[in-house]
Design brief:
It is built from 13 helices and 15 strands. The chain is α+β, with helices and mostly antiparallel strands. The strands form 2 sheets. Strands 7, 8, 9, 10, 11, 12, 13, 14 and 15 form a 9-stranded mixed β-sheet that branches. Helix 4 crosses helix 5, helix 6 crosses helix 9 and helix 11 crosses helix 12. The two termini are 35 Å apart.
């Protein structure tokens, strides 16, 4: 019997999972116009599947509209083609739905462009555990550790390139079975799209090999942690880099320095969105090569914001390489929401003309609940997300905390590792 191809359309929701609906691929042209219907409560599916909290109940209807620019079609021998698109959620009237993660990011990028004339150039560096490597002592950055993963890395990079995502690097990381994949920077919304596509294709390749990957921030309490680091810089209207200024401290342009100051100012509250799970805070502890306070450093992988190196004698090439790395994020966050909050916080620094020196180092929250309290009390966050979205997000995450209140750290880590 001849098969009929199916296509999936989804978005990275409040829990950071890629969820949506599928339909016959022959219907895609029509679906590009009208989309697929969703219950608003779909956005409130928990990290573990059950609906633990929703402000909508059984009421309402929204539509998920596929974005043709995000089309992914990757064929695998002996298996169904990996065929999906990312989409935007709109109301019955066709207006952007306030809870749509892509719309939250798009609104943030539009504000950045309107107030500064700048575009954001960003890339996500994502760490994960691959089960296809046999149990073995850690071999950090060794060729043999790369060798042992077999064909997974090559297949993943080929799948990414076929999907329109440009691979940058694939490497063996610090922990046993731990690897990292980074893709080339992209402008604005596409950077977050690429992060979602990368996660899904890593899962797809592992599945075809009879294995799986886990992006969970901490697979077990004693394990090496997995971060999702966001590298960013600015382009002007002529696509020229404008973050670099070799005459200024740390080579940061004036606007770049103010942007960093804004992130530092709001960082403890941002954690509730960029590091939004219980094991996120097991990761953000001393001696894990992860940040523990709102600080910035040149070439320092222990700081929350790292000024990354630019090499060579050509100033124009250094300017194109130059970027800042945001290190307080992991894959339990929706890339859209995480990047949106970073942009909004940085833009606030530009508005207030804050300086890095004016920002005191603040300890990062030591639990998701403490981070949610800071987010809830932030007047800025209510403006960035919308008061209703903020209130619902806080309730949603508190329901997640409550669902795990009877488990110890080992069991909590295990449960997140199963679903991320």
């Amino acid at each position: 019997m001849q098969r009929e191809q199916i296509v999936f359309v989804g978005t990275s929701d409040l829990s950071g999972h890629f969820r949506g609906k599928s339909f016959a691929a022959a219907e895609l042209p029509a679906r590009l116009e009208r989309g697929v219907g969703l219950a608003p409560t779909n956005m409130f599916l928990s990290a573990f599947g059950p609906i633990q909290m929703t402000p909508f109940g059984t009421l309402g209807e929204v539509f998920l509209i596929p974005d043709p620019a995000t089309r992914v079609s990757v064929a695998f021998d002996g298996s169904a083609t990996e065929y999906f698109l990312l989409g935007d959620i709109v109301t019955l009237e066709g207006a952007p739905w306030e809870y749509c993660p892509r719309q939250v990011l798009r609104r943030s990028l539009d504000r950045l462009k309107a107030e500064t004339g700048l575009k954001l150039l960003a890339a996500f560096e994502q760490e994960f555990i691959y089960s296809g490597v046999a149990a073995h002592p850690a071999q950090p950055y060794e060729l043999d550790a790369y060798r042992r993963q077999g064909l997974f890395g090559e297949t993943l990079l080929a799948a990414l390139r076929q999907a329109g995502v440009v691979p940058d690097s694939f490497l063996s990381e610090f922990g046993p079975q731990q690897f990292e994949v980074t893709v080339a920077p992209a402008v604005g919304l596409r950077a977050a799209d690429d992060a979602v596509i990368t996660r899904e294709l890593a899962q797809a390749v592992a599945f075809r090999m009879g294995q799986r990957v886990s992006f969970s921030p901490l697979p077990e309490p004693s394990a090496a942690s997995n971060g999702t680091h966001i590298h960013w810089s600015f382009l002007d209207e002529d696509d020229q880099p404008v973050l670099y200024d070799e005459e200024r401290p740390w080579n940061l342009s004036a606007l770049g320095s103010q942007f960093v100051a804004g992130i530092l100012h709001h960082l403890p509250a941002l954690c509730a969105v960029t590091a939004p799970s219980l094991p996120s805070y097991y990761r953000l502890r001393p001696n894990r090569w992860a940040p523990v306070q709102s600080d910035v450093g040149v070439l320092d992988r222990g700081t929350a914001l790292r000024i990354c190196p630019a090499v060579g004698s050509d100033a124009s090439q250094r300017a194109r390489q130059f970027n800042v790395e945001f290190r307080v994020a992991d894959a339990t966050a929706s890339p859209y929401l995480a990047l949106a909050m970073v942009v909004q916080a940085g833009l606030d620094g530009i508005r207030h003309r804050w300086t890095i020196d004016s920002q005191k180092r603040q300890p990062l929250p030591d639990s998701l609940e403490n981070a949610l309290q800071l987010l809830q009390s932030s007047e800025s966050a209510a403006q960035w997300l919308g008061a209703e979205v903020l209130a619902a997000y806080v309730r949603f995450k508190r329901a997640e905390i409550k669902s795990l209140e009877n488990f110890d750290e080992s069991e909590i880590c295990r449960r997140y590792a199963e679903v991320y």
